[in-house]
Every structure is written in C-alpha cells, then in structure tokens.
Amino acid sequence: MKFVLIFGAIFWPRSSWQQCDDNGEMHSNGDKWIRNNHFLVTCRGGKIQTLKCVTDSGHLIDVGSKTHTENGYEYSCNQEEQQKEINVNSCSTFADFSDDIFKDRFAICCISRRFKGCVDINGDIIKHGYFLIGNQSLKFCKIAKNQLSARIEPKGCFNGSIHDDINDEKLHIKKYVTWKNGEFEWRCGDDGIHVQKCFVDGKVYWAGSSWIENNGNVKTCSTIY
Ligand SMILES: *[C@@H]1O[C@H](CO)[C@@H](O)[C@H](O)[C@H]1NC(C)=O
Ligand SMILES: *[C@@H]1O[C@H](CO)[C@@H](O)[C@H](O)[C@H]1NC(C)=O
Known about the structure:
Layout: E1 3-11, E2 20-22, E3 25-27, E4 32-35, E5 39-44, E6 47-54, E7 60-62, E8 66-70, E9 73-81, E10 101-103, E11 106-109, E12 114-119, E13 125-126, E14 129-132, E15 137-143, E16 150-158, E17 172-173, E18 178-181, E19 184-189, E20 192-200, E21 203-206, E22 210-212, E23 218-220
Antiparallel strand pairs: 1-9, 2-3, 4-5, 5-6, 6-7, 8-9, 10-11, 11-12, 12-13, 14-15, 15-16, 16-17, 18-19, 19-20, 20-21, 22-23
The protein binds 2-acetamido-2-deoxy-beta-D-glucopyranose (2 copies).
The site of one 2-acetamido-2-deoxy-beta-D-glucopyranose (NAG) has 7 residues, from loops.
C-alpha cells in the first residue's frame, strides 16, 4: 500500500471561555502542543484546532478538507506517502520552514538537512537548553556544532510553574527524589512528577488506591501531577 490516511481531530468544547481543556490538561489561548503524538494543535478561542498532522515518519503535513463530524469530533484527513524510515534526502530542493521533520522529539530542518532543536510539550522548538515534555519531566537539548547529531539528556524534574525560569537550578529535582507537600507525597520518576502517597485522616494511601469514606464518598489517590 502506498498511501495511508491520517486523521486529524478537531474538538469543539461546549464552554465558551478562552482556555482549552485537553483531557484535563488546561492550555491557554495560543498555546501549541503535540496531541496523541500525531497532531500539532493550538488553542484558539477555547477550541482545540489541529494545525498540522505528524505522520508516523515524522513529517508535518497540512490539515486537508473536513470530511465528517462524529461524537463532537470533526475529522479531516490528508494523504501522505508512507515512509518507514526518515531520510533527509527526501526533503524537496524547494523545502521551506514548514517542511521541518519531527522524530522522537527532535526537529530537523529540511532546508539545511540538519538538526535544529528539540520539541517541548507546547510543540515549540528548543535550540539548546532545558525544556519540559510533560508531567514536569525536565530534559536538556544538545545539538552538535555541525548539527548532524543531537541528544536529549534526562535532567529529572522541574518543580516550578510556567512563570518560573526553567534554568533556575533551585527548582530542578533529581530523579527518584520524594518530598511531602500538604496531603501528598510527590516523586520525581522516569516520566516526571507523580503523586506517590496520599495522607488522609491520619491514614497513608499509595497512589493507585481507592477507598470509601465513612460518609460514603469514594476517594482515589491519583498518580497524575
Ligand atoms: C517542590 O516545590 C514545593 C512547593 O514549592 C516545595 O514545598 C517542595 O519542597 C519542592 N520539592 C523539592 C524536592 O525541592
Ligand atoms: C505523564 O504521566 C503519565 C502517567 O504516568 C504517563 O502515561 C505519560 O507517559 C507521562 N508523560 C510523559 C511525557 O512522560
């Protein structure tokens, strides 16, 4: 088979405010992020819109014409030649900046056919330095001088908000460090910060536990940051 269908979902939430709720993760107007590994999306006026589809081979492709709506999702699809391996020689001689190739969080420029940076949680390209990939997981992007090789180094977790400076080492946490904050014990694990334990009414619950309180309320100790 030569062609594969790529589906881009556009989700239209009912609420009319400006933020976008992507399965519980809030994004501000104008934010860009990669969704389900296959869609570069943005938040526009409270709606998540697909800007580009990311193919399995890492190419960004434009969203084509709308096809149909299903369960509140609007699907559009594009045709893209299937490619098993990424090869910069497949870049057109007339490539421009919209032809960047994405592979495993690396961004490759199709004009120079060299690495240009690493892709963070918002879909932004970081040329060199610290960046976040989700769950406050902290990474460092290194591009070799000749831009023919690149490396993403694990740096533990970032214990700050979007308003904090990502280079502030006081907010960097080494992997496997745990700390207590209020009714939670947090841990910097392999994929970011997670709740490890909950402290409720003098009892300790491990993440993943659920229990029924005297008043009938069902509680869970969640693992999500
Ligand atoms: C992470 O931040 C919280 C809140 O600012 C603080 O209480 C906690 O000590 C920090 N954890 C570490 C390991 O620095
Ligand atoms: C964030 O945490 C969830 C739950 O453990 C995990 O499935 C997901 O892969 C993590 N995301 C990243 C970017 O590590």
